[in-house]
Amino acid sequence: VLLRVADCGEKDADAVLAAVTGAAARWRALTAPDRTEALLRWARELDGHRDTLAELVARESGALRAEAAADVDRAVACVRHYAGLVGKIDGRTLSGIPGHLGHTVREPYGVVAGLNSWNSAPSLFAWQAAPALACGNGYVLRAHPAAPLAPVLMAHLAQRAGVEAVVAFTGRDAVDTRLARHPAVGVIAFTGSADDGREVVRASADQVAPLTVRLAAPHNAFVLAGADLDAAVPCLAHSRFACAGQNWFAAGHVYVHTSLYEAFVAGVVALAERLRVGPPLAADAQMGPLISAEARDRVAAAVAAGVAAGAEV
Is the model's pLDDT at 294 over the cut of 80? Predict the structure, then answer.
C-alpha cells in the first residue's frame, strides 16, 4: 500500500464543483500577466517535483521510472506552452457590411470536468487543464481510481503555485456520470474506454454540455515493402512494449508486407527475448509490470486465445 486516498461520492463531487466554480470566477478576474505567471509557477513546481511524480506514476501504474519521468516532462512542457497563450485568445472584428462593425468575444465556459484513464496520467491532466486555465476556466479532474496519486499531487502543486481553480479527486464510476450531468460543468473532457465513454455521453445529454471524447482504440502500423527494418523493428517494438504495452498510443495491429514478414517477425522476437522485465524502479528493468491482476488476466486470456488459434509462444 503506497498511500490511501478518499473514495469520493456524488455529494463530494458536488462540493468540489461548488469550490471550483467560485475559484474559476476569481481566476478569470485576474489579469492576463498574473494568470501567465501563475501557470509558469505551476510548471516550475511540477518540474521541481519531477522525481516524486515519476516515482508515484511508476509505483501505481508499473511504468518504468524513465517512462514516467518523460510523461511528467510532457506535462511541464504543456503547461508552459499554454501559459504563453493567456490573453492571446481573442474574438474577431467583423466589418463586411458598410457602416456596421461587429465584434465577437470568447467567453470561458466556467468549469471543465476531466474524466481520464490511468495511463499517461500527468500528461493527460496537463493537456486538459492547461488550455482550460489559459482560457479563464476552472478545471476539476476525476482521477482514475487505479492511479490517482500523481494527479492529486499535481493539483496540490497548482494550488500552491496560485492556480486555485484546479482540483483533482478520485471516486467510483457514479462520480463520472454525476460530473457529466452536473449543471455547473461547462465542458466535459473524457479519455478512456468506449464503454465508459458511452455512459458519459448519455449522462451529458440532458445538460447538452460541449464534450470532447478520446476513446481507446487499437492503432494500426503498416510496414511497406521499402521499409528500413533496422528502424521499423525497434520503433514498433517500443510502441508495443513501452509501459508494458499499456500506452494509449501503442500499435495494436501491425501489417507487414509479405516480402518483409519473416525478417520483421524474427527481429521483433529477438528484441522481445532480450527485454529485462522487473520492478518499475529497478535500474536495469526494461519493462515493468501490468497495472493490476485484472490486466494480467486479460493478457493471459489473449495469449491463450492466440495459442488456441495456432500461435507459438
Answer: yes
Q: Which domain holds residue 223?
A: 219-308
CATH code of residue 275? 3.40.309.10
Put simply, whether the predicted model's pTM sits higher than 0.90 gets the answer no
Q: Cβ distance 133 to 139 under 8 Å?
A: yes
How many of the other CB atoms lie within 10 Å of CB of 260? 18
Whether residue 150 is found in the same domain as residue 250: no
How many beta carbons lie within 10 A of that of residue 169, not counting itself? 21
CA-to-CA distance for 94 and 117, rounded, in angstroms? 41
Strand (E) or helix (H) holding 43? helix 32-48
Do 254 and 224 have their domain in common? yes
pLDDT exceeds 90 at position 199: no
Q: Which three cell numbers stand for residue 79?
A: 503547461
DSSP string of 214-272, one letter each residue: EE---EEEEE-TT--HHHHHHHHHHHHHGGGGT-TT-EEEEEE-TTTHHHHHHHHHHHH
Whether residue 100 lies inside any domain: the answer is no
Give the CA count within 13 Å in the CB-facing half-sphere of 191.
21
- C-alpha 137/C-alpha 146 separation (Å) is 27
pLDDT digits (tens, 9 = 90+) for 122-167: 999 999 999 999 999 999 999 998 899 999 999 999 999 999 999 9
Q: Residue 165 and residue 155: Cα distance in Å, rounded?
A: 9
What's 167-189 look like in SS3? EEEEECHHHHHHHHHCCCCCEEE
Q: pLDDT digits over 25-46, tens only?
A: 999 999 999 999 999 999 999 9
Q: Is residue 94 part of a domain?
A: no
Question: Is residue 262 located within the same domain as residue 131?
Answer: no
Q: Give the count of domains, the chain.
A: 2
Res 2 pLDDT > 80: no
Q: Is 250 in contact with 239 (CB distance < 8 Å)?
A: yes
